[in-house]
User: What shape does this take?
Amino acid sequence: MEFPAAPARRGLVPWLGVLPSVFLLTLWIPPTTARFAVVSTSALEGQDVILHTHNRPPNCAGFIWYRGDKTDYNHFIASLTLHSRRSVRGPKYSGQETVNLDGFLTIRKVTLKDTGTYTVIAVLENSLREIGCGQLDVYRPVSVPTLLASNTTVTENEDAVVMTCHTDASSTNWLFNATSLRLRKRMKLSQDHRTLTIDPVRREDAGNYQCKVSNPVSSTESAPVELDVKY
Ligand SMILES: *[C@@H]1O[C@H](CO)[C@@H](O)[C@H](O)[C@H]1NC(C)=O
Ligand SMILES: *[C@@H]1O[C@H](CO)[C@@H](O)[C@H](O)[C@H]1NC(C)=O
Assistant: This one.
């Protein structure tokens, strides 16, 4: 079994150099839906991440990992040959990646730049190969949002109040007295959920409002804004 090393030594074309046509001929697509794939993963910046695979075929001889969805030498990160435990590093090796004996790729201390597609080839005995890919998304922790109200002392049935959650997070939810806000008919959320309008206010709206923002790996809440309703 040949694993990618440096390109063409002694005039030989390494097998990576003749992709993708070789691939199409030898790629083995299992007859079931149990396709070999990289498990798509979300992570917080600075974490160590393990990119697992689903449905690893039996009798693997080794694994080759690539950054992106292309399997040419320029995208090659690292490979591992199981019987010899020999690993080879490629142009996309950054010093943080390791292929382990299960064929998973560990990336130490991920950064936002590690976000993207990863492709793995499982090299089987009898020179068949299976290819799988998946996505890694790296996020920063969301910052604490600021909640501002148009007015915090309002009169029942006369006034409206507009609350705005200042955030750049992708998801915003609202809390009333520390539990999820139940939207009433008089309440309206903007399309991005960052603005809450209560029109008119009623005495039962009095209490503490917060917005809670999140991304796939972290969440945080604003300081509470207390709404006082006179009647
Ligand atoms: C807030 O509402 C109260 C009661 O209706 C009103 O008297 C006050 O002027 C409002 N304050 C602001 C800043 O709009
Ligand atoms: C919400 O909290 C405020 C202040 O603690 C309290 O006066 C009010 O009764 C609470 N409202 C509800 C519906 O729990």
Notes: The helical segments are 21-26. The longest strand covers residues 129-139.
